[in-house]
């Protein structure tokens, strides 16, 4: 899989975001309604990527800078992961792990010190991935803080410099 940085509103990103929203509707009965602005995923305070296999967009993910004061559970230097997704026919090949590793690498290179994310109990695949990759539970944040199915996780990053 080839990972390419793209704008959040790139046509391939928008198609994958629509797929993940449909996935959320199937699992939870509604889309993720977290307020997002495409500009939040632009450098230097954000990043978005699409993964391609044989020229087809099959995976996506991004991060946006978050800091203390935006939410009681967030800290200065956080990078919130959003829209992590792999198309159904491409799952089980390590693509989600590759997307996650690149998001962590780029967030650290941008000076972010911790990744944070929100997922849910109806996504056991995501829960297993994040546990395997060293994410630990944190208090819920954001618009789903009081949702019983919401689970939030964090992982410290090793800060590096952009190449």
TrEMBL record:
Transmembrane segments: none annotated. Residues 1-158 form the N-acetyltransferase domain. Keywords: Acyltransferase, Transferase. InterPro entries: Bact_Acetyltransf, GNAT_dom. It comes from the Bacteria. Pfam families: Acetyltransf_1 (PF00583). This is GNAT family N-acetyltransferase. It comes from Pseudonocardia abyssalis.
